[in-house]
DNA sequence: ATCCCCGTGCCTGTTTTTTGGGCACGGGGA
DNA sequence: TCCCCGTGCCCAAAAAACAGGCACGGGGAT
């Protein structure tokens, strides 16, 4: 029911990922860090890429469950910023690795879920066609996603909140125009 | 090699102990908190008192290993204060329970170890008889121990650092007199 | 080019740990 | 008085972790 070893593996991996690039982390490193047998790793995970896949997906899930009721574009941004900043070194190392696609996929899905939840509630009962709503969701999802990517490409040197503030402003003005 | 369940039990117990009195914590509460089977608890620990015994002893060990080289009465006091304050609610609940004796025994031993290590190094090569040194250690050990007890009896309302500052002053003046 | 080291992924079998179910006991509340 | 609940313990089954070994492939050193 409670798989502490599995959790320990993930924690060790996240810890190591906060220290160095993914390419410099081996299965051996992970199992030695949490003092378990190497076979135990393979009992729980297919291989290292599978661990990456689960880790990234799980972190995104945590983010979503942590903010069940996003009720503004600002809160929406805060949620994403929170996750990215909390493990910014790990995020950086995953992004600049062969697993970039895994990260981008989950980030896109995560942004999509949050934005979609918020916008669907926002437009409930208002005169908008499903197609228009979907397009709106896609637009804002991509804006959200792109802001993170842009920030990562810039070496995370800029204030990510800045990117999001601009995105939020655009979203708000766009929404207000729609609602008129 | 790595027993995560055992650790999880201790963490859950410490967490609960920071929330409510020992008398209101059952084995069931603990296993439910970390989502394991009740039998798994009994696999690792004889019963709840055994868990208390190990927990308290372990915390004291952590404290000692965290401060391997105490080189002044102040540092000695800081070490003890650190442990007590970090889990002050848990300490309070253990102290005000049927396991008070367990806590006092380990606290006394812990104070003894730290004080002894420090004083033996301090008086190395100086003219003092082993009997006098032992008496000195016992005196300071008890002063250290008693300060914590006194603070706990006062409902932890006062600043524990105050108690220790006074103890430290006495220790220092006593030591200086001896060294002259 | 060859050898060698190292990490990988997987296999076998064994041991340890966790689980689910059930039992008798005792204390406390209805 | 009965009943509920937590306890401590038992058993057998399932899950998990272990030790040890093997073939493969990449990369560095000679």
Break the fold down into its secondary structure elements and pairings:
The structure is a homodimer of 180-residue chains.
Chain A: H1 4-17, H2 27-33, H3 38-44, H4 48-66, H5 73-86, H6 88-95, H7 100-122, H8 130-153, H9 160-179
The structure holds a DNA duplex (30 and 30 nucleotides).
What is the CA-atom radius of gyration of chain A, in angstroms? Answer: 19 Å
Could you give the order of the helices and strands of chain A?
HHHHHHHHH
Question: Quick one: biggest sheet of chain A?
Answer: none
Proportion of beta-strand residues of chain A = under 5%
Count the beta strands of chain A: 0
Distance between the termini of chain A: 52 Å
Structural class of chain A: mainly alpha
Average pLDDT for all residues of chain A: 86
Low-pLDDT stretches of chain A are none
Assign an overall shape of chain A.
elongated
Report the largest inter-chain contact: A-B, 10 and 10 residues
Oligomerization state: homodimer
Instruction: List the total number of helices of chain A.
Output: 9
Supply database-style keywords.
homodimer; 180 residues; mainly alpha; elongated; DNA-binding
Folded structure, characterized:
- Two copies of one chain form a homodimer.
- Chain A has 180 residues and is mainly α.
- The first copy, chain A, is 76% helix and 0% strand.
- Chain A is built from nine helices and no strands.
- In chain A, α1 packs across α6 and α5 packs antiparallel against α9.
- Chain A is elongated.
- The mean pLDDT of chain A is 86.
- Chains A and B meet through α1 of A and α1 of B.
- The structure holds a DNA duplex (30 and 30 nucleotides).
């Amino acid at each position: 029911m409670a798989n502490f070893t599995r959790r320990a593996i993930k924690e060790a991996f996240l810890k190591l990922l906060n220290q160095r690039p993914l390419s410099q982390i081996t299965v051996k490193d992970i199992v030695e860090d949490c003092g378990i047998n190497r076979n135990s790793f393979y009992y729980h995970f297919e291989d290292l890429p599978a661990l990456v896949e689960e880790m990234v997906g799980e972190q995104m899930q945590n983010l979503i469950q942590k903010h069940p009721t996003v009720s503004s574009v600002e809160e929406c941004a805060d949620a994403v910023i929170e996750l990215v900043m909390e493990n910014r070194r790990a995020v950086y190392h995953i992004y600049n690795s062969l697993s970039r696609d895994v990260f981008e996929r989950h980030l896109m899905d995560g942004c999509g879920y949050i934005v979609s939840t918020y916008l669907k509630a926002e437009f409930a009962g208002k005169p908008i066609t499903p197609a228009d709503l979907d397009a709106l969701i896609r637009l804002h999802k991509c804006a959200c996603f792109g802001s993170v990517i842009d920030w990562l490409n810039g070496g995370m040197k800029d204030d990510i909140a800045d990117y999001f503030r601009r995105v939020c402003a655009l979203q708000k003005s766009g929404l207000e125009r729609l609602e008129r």
